[in-house]
Amino acid sequence: MNPRKKIKLVDLYGQYESIKPEIDEAMKRALESAQFIMGREVGEFEAEVARYLGVKYAIGCASGTDALQVAMMALSIGPGDEVITSPFSFVATAETIAILGARPVYVDIDGRTFNIDPSKLEVAITAKTRAIIPVHLFGQSADMDPIMEIAKKHGLKVIEDAAQAFGAEYREKKVGTFGEFGCFSFFPSKNLGAYGDGGMIVTSDEALAEKARMITLHGARKKYYHELVGVNSRLDTLQAAILKVKLKYLDDWNRRRQELALAYTERLASTNVIPPHIMPGCVHIFHQYSILIPASLGKSRDELAAYLGVRGIPTAIHYPIPLHLQRAFAHLGNKEGDYPISESTAREILSLPMYPELSLEEVDYIAAAIKEFAGEKVFVP
């Protein structure tokens, strides 16, 4: 690889360059319409997302964070309620629960998939539990069959945090379509990313869809007639126009991510780092490609990140502190040791460059550097 060529963690400009004429034309049309809020492109994009995912309704909103909050508001979740979720996720998952006055209750993750462990769910359910928010982390589905069975058994709602998993599948069904709501983010670095913030709420329940849409529009079905206390959370026309173009390419981009992930995994198989695990029956779209640097290696994740950085390879840590140990949630009374798999994962995880425009030559270079640092596995018969 040419050492002068800069490897990026995510190449947003490279993706724009690959479809520039279409993006520019879509933005030009949106600008010329002068309908910057709730313009034609918003409804068209919502309809295309609904068709793509196989749901009846898709409601654009201002962010993936808002999608989670609006979904819970539509289910009347609030003070005194408990919502079960993963402690190993972006803060928005738990933050939105707390904003509504409900209590986040954590269940530890499966150390292979980084997703909530269904075998630990039932012990966390109390009389106050209203919902479960499984997170499809890094682009791989949570194990939805047992989650849905437990939810049904206990009369709980399910809101899927699919912010990182647009197009991922669980047993030939798109994620975000199992529970009462699926929530997506179009943050620029996502596999389907806007050029600013944006989000989407999806459901096949007509009444819930209507209520969620009203909530995003200040609780109004008709302008100036407010039936509910809502919020201002709309997907703007320019972002919808951009996303409408990008959606056409999403499956190809996801396949490329899978090819790159396979290349990484093949090249790292002989090393002492642990590549991502793909659960049987899942289509992983690799929003992130995250490896584990086990404590047994005798070298830390931070040392590897520094080693790669010197060689022009950017990395990221998703996530360095689990949610139960964040200062913002100290009032919940959680302590170190409560969710040991999430805690060890936070110490050992490292995300490598991952985007469709990444070349196999660059993957070779990154993998070779990791092998130099971590060494090859010693075969033990």
Main attributes of the structure:
381 residues; alpha/beta; 14 strands; three-stranded antiparallel beta sheet; seven-stranded mixed beta sheet; 37% helix; single chain
Fraction in beta strands: 5-15%
| Gap between N and C termini | 36 Å
Major sheet strand order = 1-9-8-5-4-2-3
Work out the helicity level. Answer: 25-40%
Please tell me how large the radius of gyration is.
21 Å
How many helix segments?
A: 12
Order of helices and strands: HHHEHEHEEHEEEEEHEEHHEEHHEH
What integer is the average pLDDT? Answer: 96
Structural class category: alpha/beta
Q: Shape from CA axes? A: globular
Question: Main β-sheet: number of strands, strand sense, barrel status?
Answer: 7 strands, mixed
Number of strands: 14
Regions with pLDDT < 50 over 5+ consecutive residues? Answer: none
Overall description:
- By secondary structure, the protein is an alpha/beta fold.
- Helices cover 37% and strands 14% of the residues.
- It is built from twelve helices and 14 strands.
- The protein has helices at 12-18, 20-33, 40-53, 64-74, 92-99, 144-154, 206-216, 237-247, 250-268, 301-310, 340-348, 360-374, and strands at residues 57-61, 82-85, 103-106, 129-133, 157-161, 169-170, 173-174, 181-185, 199-203, 220-222, 225-226, 282-283, 289-292, 349-352.
- The strands form four sheets. Strands 1-9-8-5-4-2-3 form a seven-stranded mixed beta sheet, with helices on both faces. A three-stranded antiparallel beta sheet has the order 7-6-12, with no helix packed on it.
- Strand 10 and strand 11 form a beta hairpin.
- The two termini are 36 Å apart.
- The mean pLDDT is 96.
